[in-house]
Specification:
alpha+beta; BirA Bifunctional Protein, domain 2; 3-stranded antiparallel sheet; 10 strands; elongated
């Protein structure tokens, strides 16, 4: 009785498989005959009523039928898929006269454009680019740069602490220490990359980009520093711009100065960007503090140096007249496309 039932299932399945007109109907038949609750699964329950000596033979025949049906299913499925594709190709046509989809062109981000332009300018006077880790040891971010433990920059309101000894770097100055430790002077380098501070408003971001120059050589003076920055300002913003230093304080330079240049927009006449002063602050600079050389095990005063740093977003704001620094990280293609070459 079980054998007759098995033969009937096989014949029915083969007939219906071959009669299927599409892959969905064929799959439904597979579920009906070979599925978890299909006919072949149900017939296996009949084995319980068979004599013990007939069970192995019947089980073998069920497996043979199952293998046959799976083979026929696969062959039929491939034939139906091929037929369906050929049917689509015959019925569907591509109208080449229709207008194409409009794809909005992208562009290099202004942070990238400004960075590459700065690298190119500094390369002409012998500077090469360096990068460093974003997560810095407290030592490289603060101590080696002559920033003591009680300095306000170490306050939790200014710095993102990872743990008591690691921070998200607050400036690119640690690259100076890494370079001084791993390379022999004379050195002319530009350190660059993202930095992080707990600050966010129309003119500040918690994550922004800096570029920092360092020159270490024999008999380096403030005159060398001002000449370098003046050259950079003229090359980056345009000819005819003046540069001035204002006394300031940074723990890692002595003496230190804030750097201003005449406004590139109004050429020093006064406008909204420079707040009618004719001058714009672009960064800080100074001669490298002897304590920094001592921490990096560089012989001072045999070797002397200067360093300067600018915010890349700020340089872009000044050059392109951008009124809100928060536009930079939004990655709005409408903003980025304004800086097409």
């Amino acid at each position: 009785m079980s054998q007759t039932k098995l033969d009937a299932i096989k014949d029915s399945a083969l007939t219906q498989f071959k009669a299927a007109t599409n892959t969905k109907a064929l799959y439904d038949l597979k579920v009906q005959f070979l599925g978890k609750n299909g006919s072949l699964t149900e017939i296996m329950k009949d084995m319980a009523s068979l004599p013990k000596e007939e069970k192995p033979l019947f089980g073998k025949k069920v497996n043979e039928v199952k293998s046959l049906l799976e083979q026929v299913y696969t062959e039929t499925e491939e034939a139906l898929k091929k037929a369906e594709i050929e049917g689509k190709m015959a019925s569907e046509e591509l109208d080449l006269t229709l207008p194409s989809y409009t794809r909005m062109a992208g562009n290099q981000h202004p942070v990238y454009k400004v960075s590459e332009e700065i690298f190119a300018i500094m390369a002409r006077i012998g500077y090469s680019v360096r990068t460093g880790p974003l997560i810095e040891k407290d030592y490289y971010n603060f101590e080696a740069l002559n920033i003591p433990a009680d300095h306000p920059a170490r306050d939790m309101q200014d710095t993102f602490f990872i743990d008591p000894t690691h921070v998200l770097r607050t400036h690119t100055s640690p690259i100076q220490i890494h370079s001084l430790e791993s390379e022999k002077p004379p050195l002319r380098i530009v350190g660059t990359g993202p930095v992080f501070r707990c600050d966010s408003d129309i003119s500040h971001l918690p994550n922004f980009h800096q570029i920092e120059g360092m020159c270490v050589d024999r008999k380096v003076s403030m005159a060398d520093l001002k000449g370098t920055i003046s050259f950079f300002v003229r090359e980056f913003f345009g000819p005819g711009l003046k540069t001035r230093f204002r006394p300031s304080f940074f723990p890692f330079t002595e003496p230190s100065a804030e750097v201003d240049c005449s406004c590139p927009i109004c050429k020093g006449k006064g406008c909204s960007l420079c707040k009618q002063t004719g001058w714009i602050e672009i960064g800080g600079c100074g001669l490298i503090n002897p304590k920094v050389f001592h921490n990096a095990k560089i012989a001072y005063p045999e070797w002397q140096g200067f360093a300067f740093g600018f915010g890349i977003e700020r340089m872009g704001i000044i050059k392109y007249g951008i009124d809100d620094i928060r536009l930079f990280p939004e990655n709005d293609v409408r903003f980025v496309r304004q800086f097409l070459p």
